[in-house]
Amino acid sequence: MIVFAAAVALLGSLFFALGAAFQQHEASGAAGPGMLALLRRPRWLIGTGAVALGGGLHIVALSAGPLIVVQPMGVASLLFALPIAAALHGRKPSGGELIAAAVVGAGLIGLVMLVPPTAPTPSLDDTSSLGLLSGAVLTALVCFGLARSIGGAGRTALLAVAAGVMYGACATITRVIVDGDGHLWLLTVMPIPVLAALGLLQRAYAGRHFAVAYATLQLTDPLTAVACGALLLGEPLPRNLAAAVVAALVAGAGTVALARTTPLTG
């Protein structure tokens, strides 16, 4: 089941990449259009549909495997998204971008290689579920506030961190719902943080640093989910914590390198 979960998550990452590239192409600009304007753009809607399909596959993967396996597989979407997004903007991704993206990928793949093969059935009570979502919202608000005071790649990264934390928390709740003893009433709450994360991500895409936005998202999302899985669901951490820390640092270094590459849009 672990291999099946990883394969489905990998397929989902392809649709995430396609959707992200289309969304960024429509959201990019000095300030970026608002959500209501984006809803009237067919290409943005196509991208959102692709992201939704990727999300459906992600849920299937979460029902078959632990967070620590499923979430890091999203790194593949970074390698897919960069050339797709560059093509939409009429250029090829630079060698520096591809090398930095490969470094991010190597770091996250290293984390996957250290994953234990089994995980307990996830369980989370109502209070912990609401506390997790509240903590994610608070973190996102802090990042959003800091992002308003700076510009450039730093602003893009902070907005992507905010979105990634929200998505990682939502992935944790989703795993409890689909493969544990989570209460279905959580399904009525989930759209709120998901839509908030979507809005934050579009703000990140509105800047010129798509690679930074997407790499930061793909780093923050799995790290948040893995931490939540270990602390709240009792999922095992990587066997070699020192090696896992090194792998995470490698992925972080790749993200920093992406911030130094040429912006995707002019």
Automatic annotation (TrEMBL):
Transmembrane parts of this sequence: 53-86, 98-116, 128-146, 158-178, 184-201, 213-234, 240-259
SUPFAM superfamilies linked to this entry: Multidrug resistance efflux transporter EmrE (SSF103481)
UniProt keyword list: Membrane, Transmembrane, Transmembrane helix
Protein name (Swiss-Prot/TrEMBL): Integral membrane protein
Taxonomic lineage: Bacteria, Bacillati, Actinomycetota, Actinomycetes, Streptosporangiales
